[in-house]
Amino acid sequence: MSTGMIDPRGPRVGASITSVLLAVVVLLGQSTAGLVLLTFMMLSFLLGTLRGAEGTWQGWVFKTFVRPRLGPPAEMEDRRPPRFAQGIGLLVTAVGVVLGAFGILSAVPIAAGVAFVAAALNAVFGLCLGCELYLLLRRSGLVRA
Amino acid sequence: MRSSVTGRFTPGVTGVMSVLIADTGLSGGATQGIVSRMLGQVIALVVLVLGTAALGVWWSARQGAVRAPRETPAGIDWASAGIALAERVTFVQFSAEVCAACRSTSRVLGGLTGGAAGVGHREVLVDDHLDLVRSLGVLRTPTVLVVDGGGREVARMSGVVSDSQARQALNRVPAATGAEGEAQR
């Protein structure tokens, strides 16, 4: 994983946009429309997993429309935890999309709901799932330094 | 219910009424079906939002909160782990390289210990001390153990630690050190 520092407000603004869209998926319920939007969200998470949170379209929205209106950040953040969070989002939404594609449409709002919790906690409270889980994963030996 | 109501009307009216009822019942049922399905989703979202908010408030309240020490296994050899304890009290901070909360906590604790004699701050990376992390029951970064001069844990905090929380933890250290913590204010 390549290292580097990013503006920590970027992933949080991105998570705000993401949680609103995931809330819409929950509202769409067990429908094809919900499946389509969840698939779109999954692809966004795929982009974030491959390129980092700053490389998503939400990151682009932040850089283009939000950051110019803000002062410089108090401090920068390592880009790896937000990228890890994108991977978690990819995993959760992919389960919903795959099950939904096989006709189990109830999985669509459920997966969106789970992803919503993580995204909203990040956006509103600054909870970083990657940071919370890192040590647990290290302790269990699932992740190496 | 419907039959008892319609039963009072003449057959002609009853016929019209029953058609009307059946008709509204049908279309109303379809509309109601959509509304109630949407309602279910709206309720699901409201529950989800409230649950998330509760979780977030709980998580925020825990950040840096001074907690009682865990049952520290006896005879932790801090020195052999490369952690030199200060004379009276040491903040032993477990951090991860990528953890932003660890950096701000480190700044707070570093600032606090700078002016106080006998108070130390040692920051270690969890990756270098996985054994210690396991035996001390450290689950997340940053976790700060407040260790007295004898190597005994007197309090612990996890998550971002604020200046006032760190001072509060210092006050947990008995006797002279506690008074010292008060005097610093």
Descriptive tags:
heterodimer, A: 145 residues, mainly alpha, two-stranded antiparallel ribbon, B: 185 residues, alpha+beta, Glutaredoxin, 2 domains, four-stranded mixed sheet, 4 strands, elongated, disordered N terminus, disordered C terminus, membrane (chain B)
Could you describe the 3D structure shown?
The complex is a heterodimer of chains A (145) and B (185). Chain A is an all-alpha fold and 145 residues long. Chain A has one domain. Helix content of chain A is 71%, strand content 3%. Chain A contains six helices and two strands. Chain A has a two-stranded antiparallel sheet. In chain A, helix 1 packs antiparallel against helix 2. The radius of gyration of chain A is 15 Å and the shape is globular. Chain A starts with a strand and ends in a 5-residue tail after the last helix. Chain B is of the alpha+beta class and 185 residues long. Chain B folds into two domains: 61 residues; 96 residues, 3-Layer(aba) Sandwich (Glutaredoxin). Chain B is built from six helices and four strands, in the order H-H-E-H-E-H-E-E-H-H. A four-stranded mixed β-sheet of chain B has the order 2-1-3-4, covered by helices on one side. The N terminus and C terminus of chain B are likely disordered. At the A-B interface, helix 1, strand 2, helix 5 and helix 6 of A face helix 2, helix 3 and helix 4 of B. Chain A: It comes from Promicromonospora citrea. Chain A: Keywords: Membrane, Transmembrane, Transmembrane helix. Chain A: Pfam families: DUF4395. Chain A: This is Membrane protein. Chain A: InterPro entries: DUF4395. Chain B: Keywords: Membrane, Transmembrane, Transmembrane helix.
Please tell me the overall pLDDT of chain B.
78
Tertiary shape of chain A: globular
Order of helices and strands of chain A: EHHHEHHH
Give the strand order of the largest sheet of chain A, numbering strands 1, 2, ... along the chain: 1-2
Helices and strands, with pairings:
The complex is a heterodimer of chains A (145) and B (185).
Chain A: E1 5-6, H1 9-28, H2 32-51, H3 57-66, E2 77-78, H4 80-101, H5 107-125, H6 129-140
Antiparallel strand pairs in A: 1-2
Chain B: H1 2-6, H2 11-62, E1 89-95, H3 100-114, E2 119-125, H4 130-135, E3 143-148, E4 153-158, H5 163-170, H6 175-184
Parallel strand pairs in B: 1-2
Antiparallel strand pairs in B: 1-3, 3-4
